[in-house]
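Support case: user asked for a sample of complex input and structure output to validate their parser. Sending the pair below.
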Amino acid sequence: MEGMNPEDQDKKLAGADSAPVKAGTEAQAAAPAPLADAAKAAPSADDAKAGADAPAGGAAKAQGGPAEPAKTQAQDGAKAMEMAKSNPEDAANKPSKAGDRVSKKDAAQAKAKARETPAKPLKKEAKDDASKGPLGRKEHPFLRAIYAGLSLAVISAACCLIVLKADQATSAVIERNESEEIAKTVSKLLPKEAMENAKFQCHLVDDARVGRKMRLYTSEKEGIISGYVMTYSTNRGYAVPLVLIAGFTADKKVYKADIFISHETPGLGDKVDRNHGDFLDMMNGKGLEANWDVKKFGGDFDYITGSTVTSRAVVTATGDALSALNDINVQDLKPCRKR
Amino acid sequence: MNIHDDSMITVEGTKDPSRKTPLLKVFLRGLWSENPGLCQLLGMCPLLAVSTSAVSALGLGLATLLVVCLSSLIISILRRFILREVRIPLYVVLIATLVTVVRAYTEAYYPDLYSSLGIYLPLIVTNCIIMGRAEAVAGRENPLRSLLDAAGTGLGFGLVLFVLGSIREILGAGTWMAGAGTVLGSWASGLETVLYPSDYTYLVAILPPGGFFVLALLIAMKNAHAIHARNRRENRFRIDSVRD
Amino acid sequence: MNIRITEQAQKQNLGIEPAPHLHARMSTRMIMLATFLALLPASGAFYYFTGFGFVWQFLISLATATVCEAAVALLRRRSLVASLTDCSFPITCLILALTLPPLLPWYLTCAATAFAILLVKEAFGGLGMNIFNPAMAGFIFLFVSCSGFMFRTWVAPQSAACEVMTPSATMDVIFYGKPPLDLKSRLEAAAPGATPVATREGHDADNPFLVPEDTTSGASESAEDATTGATILEGVKASRKQGTVDLASVLADETISPYIWISCMFALGGIALMILRIVIVKMALSFFIAIALFAAIGHALWPALFMPVLDQLILGGTAICGFFIITDPVTNAGTSKGRIAFAVLCAFLIVAIRALGSYSDSVAFSVLLSNAAAPLIDVLTHRRAFGHGYRNGELD
């Protein structure tokens, strides 16, 4: 059955439909106008969508009459429909034996009419059904379900394969990009001798002085760490977040600091960044021994007039980062998560 | 009334349902009359979030255009094998696959664009434009019409993104196409312009409220144009309320 | 309500309203005029303490607002004369002039006013239909967009500033773009009781960022903050970040008296409006009591974050907010219980944002947030209709 065209399937099913309808009407011995009923039943058979409902519909249309014989006839009709999958002609002939000669002739006429009239609307339905997919809409719900699941599974599997393939094709390039990115960031902040022939490793830092999910990049040469680059955040700035990044030499002194993420007041607080001057260079070369605060509050470092808060935040944050760096044991740190 | 205006008036119920819209109209309606950003108001989240600079807006617009065209094409080719009951999950799977592939290649070959778009590149999966086109057109029409419709819609969205991004960047940062060199490639570095010093910018244009304001003004301008055209067509320039 | 009336009735200026009819002498125009006049004592005090810059700001704002209102009236095809003479937008202009820095460049004032009138008031429907207070929204627009300008052009009020900040001097700064620093240092030099401050050009050769150390006089400390951009509340925020909010040392006595004067003038105007029954007494009273309460609790528990009660009431625009901004009938809640809830909410937000927020001038933000909450407050406090809900849980 599945190998047939949708049009043929539906025609066969419609042909089988009209049979139980006729069976239902013929059961009405007291039916006033069997021909009229059959004629009424014929257009109702046009609607192949009615499917198994047609026998019951036909029974309801033929008003009155015994409901139960109609029902049993309907059940027979349903059984007949199923049998009609293989042999529509036999199904049409079987119930007609139960009727008398007149109705048989009328049934034959009605059958002929039923065969003709559904042709045109059937075609439209066939077109609709064709657009609905390879299987008819309601005739094979079980098969439809199986097909639905299968198509979903097949397409999903194909898509998974495509995604894996793309991932595979690009992962090498992405890793190379990442390591280049790290090298570029770090190269601005570390002295040249720490950079040559060095291997970079990224570690995650979680420290109250420095912030959560901050990164520490170590550059190693022959197993010895020759430089550190660390990002560190502070909430003492005017706007949160204020994240800085600094390169430290192997003896844990500041080599060069820079602003990583800043939302300080434009025009005032952003004077600390490198676009507006070299305020940050005053911290170069200082280690833990310096007093990490601005002169206004007793420290060693200058501050920019009008953005005391930002200047002080930068200086104290760098001091905290230094003290955190001195307490960190690099082996204890977790590596950064990929991507 | 101008006699030639009859052809432009569409009265409900008189359209012949079996006559298909011409191909050019299919393409153009996505660009202007049913623009997803200004008329249908779909895809608002990436529209407002990514349009803080012209370059990232352009990048997302191109990515969305690519995804919507490919997804519409594939779905249209497969439409006879997709049952109605499972069409939505299938569309989602196909669109997600496309977006993942696009993301992987963007991350590999355009890393600056990838980092500037951030999470909004994979979020294209949830963009209602793509699903809307798949459901409305690609699942029903032949591949050529679906492709044209998707191209028009994607281009319309991309244009709105670019215009919005440009306006917000000019107002909020004083530059235009800043970052084009790093994101699009060195050939584009000539496009970067600084229009006025950043001290005189209105920062609010880059912040979320500014996005809403500028988008609202764009929608208002488009609606004003549409209403004006309709008024002129129907000869309705008269005062319709008397007050004060 | 948009009622269609015949052209004849409109020409004869007959208004057609549905019954019941209640004759009231107060029309919109009279209310607006009364509010405008009530703001004049405070404007006078502001002029005395900060100079002529405030008047220039008001004039610029007024001009922009007139143009905007005229344009909108033309677009809506409404009567130009009627929309320009309903006296509602001069109040917005005056409040903007009182809250914006006196030396702000003219184009920024224009932008703020255009934003307030066009986007916040007219785009929502015009007079009586706006959700948010236009003046506060305009202030926030500038505050968020151009903080640098706002800080640089702010003038700390001091006695007899109007003699230094003459019309021509301020005109130079506002219109011709002269740097405001010179004018402000002249103002500081003329401050009563200030010792002459060391010249600002000289600096230490080693430390180019160092301010000349002249910490002998308290006035120069606060003067430096004022000159280099911090408003009083910004200074408080700076101390809050250091963890040293001890207001007794930040405000020397001679610098707080202008604020007291200005707040008292606002209170005077507010009381006049209360007598005229334009401002609801309950609202203003509950607002100030709530601020005092929250500030007292906050200062007692966390003195490092919260300012003392008196400073909360006087500094930072609390007075203008309590009398003129939250009592604006268009943007506050509708029911009377709702209005008290609105005032308390606004007070709470002001105190909270001053202590914990990133922006120090919290009045505008609190007002906008309360405006957004006003419809919800209305729903939650709506009165029981007569005959409904008489029995608990019943519909009747």
